[in-house]
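Quick one, probably user error.
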């Protein structure tokens, strides 16, 4: 009996979702962390209209508009939900403000009593405005655009809760190294709330989610395994138990070549890498899962020949069907809009060649 050869799959119209699903992509997908942000005058206008950053996060019509703003300027393959990783601590009962010029300020959780005072039951249900934003964007976006939801990783979120802000993180690192019981309990609470939060985003219309472990690079190897990899592995398992076909990107910033062990252990569909990660490491990653990144945000600020060369080096090194073009971290406010357009166009030239 002869067996007919398999019919090649047609490339998906959603390039980013195709790469995450290990299927042919019609072009190399591109999006940018913080692509909806202060470098855009239309964002600044809506932020002023909302009155504060948190008001903007919790206003679904405005948050949806902000999410879609960069898609109206640039030929991107994804919209990423406009929200903040610190909405989970706030839902758990932590006081949260954003001081102008200082970033987030939180009330702290530094012992067993502080953990016990958290409102862990139903935390994710208190973030219903976020799910309404997801629904609005899902209904309004173009068909080829993939909607990405997100949250912070447990280690990063817990670090903010312990320190009360993003700088230093010495108290959180000491708690992690010592393996203190209250810290382990805090991590469990944040992990479970984060699972519920991302499942709710997916059920509201997100097509993929990203887990940001912005401070993963703070952890020594043993603690990286215990407090970054294992909680994210638990999140991936929990999310897929509720949404079996969930597509998940992990972003363990600052871990270098350990990104490969992260990918293997967590079973994410793609790993985002920061700008310090070498192309050879990205190639190794792309043999295991999709890889996302990693243009330096300051190269985007510089523009010109330096940006073109960086894009050419990146896309020339990685296969189209296993690579999502992105930055190594978020767009900075001083980025010229014309350089973002240059970035996107340079990637698209590769699609046409």
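Nope, works fine. Designed sequence:
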């Amino acid at each position: 009996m002869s067996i007919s050869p398999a019919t090649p799959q047609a490339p998906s119209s959603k390039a980013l979702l195709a790469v995450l699903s290990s299927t042919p992509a019609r072009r190399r997908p591109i999006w940018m962390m913080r692509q909806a942000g202060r470098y855009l005058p239309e964002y600044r206008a809506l932020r002023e209209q909302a009155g504060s950053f948190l008001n903007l996060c919790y206003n679904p019509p405005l948050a949806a508009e902000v999410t879609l703003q960069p898609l109206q300027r640039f030929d991107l393959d994804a919209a990423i939900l406009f929200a903040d990783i610190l909405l989970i601590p706030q839902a758990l009962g932590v006081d949260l403000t954003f001081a102008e010029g200082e970033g987030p300020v939180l009330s702290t959780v530094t012992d067993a009593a502080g953990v016990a005072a958290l409102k862990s039951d139903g935390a994710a249900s208190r973030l219903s405005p976020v799910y309404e934003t997801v629904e609005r964007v899902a209904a309004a976006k173009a068909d080829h655009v993939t909607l990405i939801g997100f949250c912070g990783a447990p280690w990063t979120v817990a670090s903010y809760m312990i320190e009360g802000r993003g700088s230093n993180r010495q108290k959180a690192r000491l708690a992690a190294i010592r393996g203190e019981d209250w810290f382990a309990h805090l991590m469990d609470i944040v992990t479970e709330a984060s699972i519920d939060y991302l499942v709710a985003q997916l059920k509201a219309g997100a097509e993929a989610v990203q887990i940001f472990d912005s401070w993963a690079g703070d952890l020594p190897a043993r603690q990286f395994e215990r407090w970054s990899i294992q909680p994210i592995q638990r999140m991936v398992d929990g999310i897929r138990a509720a949404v079996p076909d969930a597509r998940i990107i992990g972003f363990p910033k600052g871990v270098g070549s350990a990104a490969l062990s992260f990918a293997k252990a967590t079973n994410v569909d793609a790993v985002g890498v920061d700008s310090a990660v070498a192309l050879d490491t990205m190639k190794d990653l792309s043999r295991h899962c999709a890889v996302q990144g990693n243009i330096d945000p300051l190269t985007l600020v510089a523009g010109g020949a330096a940006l073109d060369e960086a894009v050419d080096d990146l896309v020339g090194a990685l296969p189209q069907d296993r690579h999502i073009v992105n930055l190594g971290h978020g767009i900075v406010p001083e980025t010229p809009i014309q350089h973002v357009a240059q970035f996107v166009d340079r990637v698209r030239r590769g699609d046409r060649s």
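The two ends are 42 Å apart (CA to CA).
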